[in-house]
Amino acid sequence: MVPIEGRQLAILLLWISLSAIVTVAFLWVVRSTRRPRDFDAVQSDGYRLRRGWGWVYGSLLIISFAVTIWTMPYAWAQQAAAKSPAITVEVVAHQFSFTMPSSLPARRLIKFVVTSADVNHGFGIYSPQGVLLAQVQAMPDYHNVLYFTFPGPGTYIIRCLEYCGEGHSAMQQPLKVYVSGSQATSVSKEA
Predict the structure, then answer these.
(1) How far is CA 158 from CA 61, 107, 126, in A?
(2) Sequence-separated (6 or more) residues with CB below 8 Å from residue 77
(3) pLDDT tens readout for residues 94-108
(4) pTM of the predicted protein model
(5) Cβ pair 100, 189 in contact under 8 A
(6) What are the strands, taking DSSP E only, across 8-139?
(7) Domain definitions of the chain by residue range
(8) Homologous superfamily in CATH for domain 75-178
């Protein structure tokens, strides 16, 4: 017999406990339905119970919405939470490069205004560890807005996320993110 490890034992005990709870609940329902009851009384009790739980769930939904709405990634929520106005950065995608600054400050709200000069592109911001942090479409004759705050300094990678031609796989650009005050605060454009 293969010995059971600690994690496997915990999962087994959890499964047995949940199975026992479901079995007891099922047996209680079976036992309670053996007694005949007047349908109007059952219906009245059911509606009262449903109404009570409806108020509980509705209240919890409204409270959780009110508490969490400020943490949503909506532009107005990010602007309201920012200690200073957003830095506006214009990004133009071309086959097969991005026209944008080569460096930006960390921990500041950045408003990327993204468009394309030729075909559809994707504008993806990857962390120094290679994790996709944010993305938006880059389309000709249209400006998409992406609000983003870089969590810390490092070299982030901007990649195209939509196939745009033969050179698509090489369409990436490093973006140096620095701590505010360690470089000039003006944002300069580079090709």
Answers:
(1) 38, 18, 6
(2) 69, 70, 71
(3) 999 999 999 999 988
(4) 0.58
(5) yes
(6) 87-94, 97-99, 103-105, 109-116, 121-126, 132-138
(7) 6-71, 75-178
(8) Cupredoxins -  blue copper proteins (2.60.40.420)
pLDDT digits (tens, 9 = 90+) for 106-133: 988 899 999 999 999 999 999 999 999 9
Secondary structure E strands in the chain: 87-94, 97-99, 103-105, 109-116, 121-126, 132-138, 144-149, 154-159, 172-178
Token match 């944002």: residue? 187
Count of helices and strands (H, E) across the chain:
3, 9
**Tokens for 176?**
């140096």
Q: Which residues share a beta bridge with 7?
A: none
Q: Which whole-number Å values give the CA distances from 21 to 16, 28, 56, in the listed order?
A: 9, 11, 24
| Alpha-carbon distance values, 71 to 23, 79, 85 (Å) | 41, 11, 18
Which has the higher per-residue pLDDT, 84 or 109?
Answer: 109
